[in-house]
Amino acid sequence: MRRRDPARGATLVELVVSIAIIATGVAGILGVMNLTTRHSADPMIVQQAQLIAESYLEEILLKKFYDPDTNNVCPAAEGSRASYDNVCDYNGLSNNTGAVDQLGGAVPGLESYNVTVTVTADNTVTLGSGLSQINNTGALRVLRVDVVVTHDTVTGMSVALTGYRVNYNCNLAADPGCKSL
User: Fold this and answer.
1) Does the predicted TM-score (pTM) go above 0.70?
2) Are residues 25 and 109 located together in one domain of the fold?
């Protein structure tokens, strides 16, 4: 009598089919890992852009409403960012070579971020007219500051923050156009 050996080997066809199934599964997993790894930095870039925008906005809103040199709301901007002393000096600020500190120095690691600032008289809130027509005797009491941060390598990513600078030094006796807000 001949005994059958219960431990049989796999045929070549079974081996090739199992290798093909395993390879397909590994390729799918590696594709998902590749996609996940490629986009894993996006949330960090967006958060960094938001922090940059918050930093610029805070710096701007802490400045004076009127220019302390001329006592006008929006005279011509100072020569450099280091000498900006009122909110309107920042109107048109554009840092396209990376975020910079308030003295104009480049911040290492933030070279890919672009920052633009716009200061306008907010027509929905203000009691006055445009920036170029306002001086200390006008009725402008609110300035709107828009800060937009983009990134060189992330297409379509844009972080925009808006803040308002209000003239808290409103003297009704000296300026009848002034109304309390």
Assistant:
1) no
2) no
